[in-house]
Design a protein that fits this description.
Bound molecules: S-adenosylmethionine, iron/sulfur cluster
Distance between the termini: 23 Å
Number of helices: 10
Order of helices and strands: EHEHEHEHHEHEHHEEEEEEHH
CATH topology of one domain: TIM Barrel
CATH superfamily of one domain: Aldolase class I
Largest sheet: 12 strands, mixed
Helix content: 25-40%
CATH architecture of one domain: Alpha-Beta Barrel
Strand order of the largest sheet: 7-8-9-6-5-4-3-2-1-10-11-12
Radius of gyration: 19 Å
CATH class of one domain: Alpha Beta
Structural class: alpha/beta
Number of strands: 12
Length: 317
C-alpha cells in the first residue's frame, strides 16, 4: 500500500525490546537508559496481531530489532509464529550477535532468513571499549555458527571518527575473506548522543575518496538505503548507508513499531501513533495503521538539526 508520496510501504521493522546486553558508546549513555516497565512492552500476541494486520495491507518484509532482540525470552517461538505468515517473503533480524552462538540454529529452524550483525571493530580491546564491556570473540563465534547454519549475513559497521576509522580497510576486506556484505552506517544524532555524534561523525563520502578501488554496483533494490560498491573479485559488497550525507527518504519503504507499541512512520521524526492503547482497549487498530500511511513525512529534518527524543535502543535501528 502506498503513502501520499507514492512510496510503497511494504517493510515493517519491529523492535521487541528496549533492553540490551551492551551499551555502545554511540547508542546509549554510559549509565544506560531507564528501561520501560515490562507491562508497557507489547506482548508477543500483541506484536503478532500488529504484524498480521500489516501483512494484510501488503507488508512483505519484516525486520525484528531492539534494543537487543536476542535478549527477549522466547524469541525463537515468536519467530516461528511470524514465519507462519506466508505472505512474508523476508524475515530478518538486526542483532549485536552476542546471542547467536546459542540461538543461530534454532532461529534458522524457526524460519528466520537473515541477520544483520552489528560489528564496529575487529580489535577485542576496542570492542570492549565501544560496547562498554562486550566480548568480541563471542560475536565472531556467533557469526561463524550463523554462517554454518545457513543464515544470510550482513555486517553493519558504524564508523566513529577517531575511534574505529582506521579499520575501514579491514572491514572492506571482509567482503572478500568472509564473502559477506559489509555496510558502513553514518553516525546519526539521536536521543542523548548529539554531542558524541557531532564529535565522531565520519562521512561515507570520505570512504569513497580513500578507497578508489571500490567499484560502484547497480542497486538491485531501489528502496535499500545503501549504495553498493565492490572490490574486484570479492563475493560480498560494500554498502554505504548515509542518512546525513545522502538523504534516501524518497525511496523509504519502511514503518517502525517501538517496543511499547508506538507506530513511527519515520525514524527521525517524533510523530508516533499509539497502537498499544487501542490493542488493550479492544479497539480496531486498522484505522490507526492507515493513519501512519497518511502522515509519513516526505523527508527527515536531520540536516535542519531537528533531533528526536527517543534513544535508538528505544526505537529499533
Ligand atoms: N542491538 C542490535 C544491534 O546492535 O544490532 C539492534 C538494535 S541497534 C539500535 C540497530 C543498529 O543501529 C545497529 O547496527 C547500531 O549500530 C545502529 N545504531 C545505533 N545507534 C546509532 C546511531 N546513533 N547512528 C547510527 N547507527 C546507530
Ligand atoms: Fe545495544 Fe545495539 Fe544499541 Fe549497541 S547498538 S547498545 S548492541 S541496542
Amino acid at each position: 500500500m502506498r503513502d501520499q508520496f507514492n512510496r510503497d510501504l511494504n517493510y515493517l521493522r519491529v523492535s521487541i525490546t528496549d533492553r540490551c546486553n551492551l551499551r555502545c558508546a554511540y547508542c546509549m549513555p554510559e549509565e544506560g537508559v531507564e528501561h520501560m516497565p515490562h507491562d508497557e512492552l507489547l506482548s508477543y500476541e500483541e506484536l503478532y496481531t500488529v504484524i498480521d494486520e500489516f501483512v494484510k495491507l501488503g507488508v512483505k518484509k519484516l525486520r525484528i530489532t531492539g534494543g537487543e532482540p536476542l535478549v527477549r525470552k522466547d524469541v525463537v517461538n515468536f519467530i516461528e509464529k511470524v514465519a507462519s505468515l506466508k505472505q512474508l517473503n523476508d524475515i530478518a533480524m538486526t542483532t549485536n550477535g552476542i546471542g547467536l552462538v546459542e540461538l543461530a540454529e534454532p532461529l534458522k529452524k524457526a524460519g528466520l532468513h537473515r541477520v544483520n550483525i552489528s560489528l564496529d571493530t575487529l580489535n577485542p580491546e576496542r570492542y570492549k571499549y565501544i560496547t562498554r564491556g562486550g566480548d568480541l570473540n563471542i560475536v565472531l563465534k556467533g557469526i561463524l555458527i550463523a554462517k554454518e547454519v545457513g543464515l544470510k549475513i550482513k555486517i553493519n559497521c558504524v564508523v566513529n571518527k577517531g575511534i574505529n576509522d582506521d579499520e575501514i580497510g579491514q572491514f572492506i576486506q571482509l567482503t572478500d575473506t568472509w564473502g559477506v556484505d559489509v555496510r558502513f552506517i553514518e553516525l546519526m544524532p539521536i536521543g542523548q548522543n548529539i554531542k558524541y555524534a557531532q564529535d565522531h561523525f565520519y562521512s561515507n563520502e570520505l570512504i569513497i575518496k580513500q578507497f578508489p578501488d571500490l567499484i560502484p554496483v547497480i542497486a538491485e533494490d531501489p528502496s535499500s538505503p545503501a549504495r553498493y560498491y565492490q572490490l574486484e573479485g570479492a563475493k560480498g559488497k560494500v554498502g554505504l548507508i548515509s542518512p546525513l550525507s545522502c538523504n534516501f527518504c524518497a525511496y523509504c519503504n519502511r514503518l517502525r513499531l517501538t517496543p511499547d507499541g508506538k507506530l513511527k512512520p519515520c525514524l527521525h521524526s517524533d510523530i508516533e501513533i499509539d497502537l498499544k492503547n487501542a490493542l488493550r482497549n479492544n479497539q480496531d487498530i486498522l484505522p490507526l495503521i492507515l493513519q501512519s500511511y497518511e502522515i509519513k513525512p516526505e523527508k527527515h529534518l536531520l540536516d535542519e538539526h531537528k533531533m528526536i527524543v527517543r534513544q535508538m535502543s528505544q526505537i529499533g535501528g
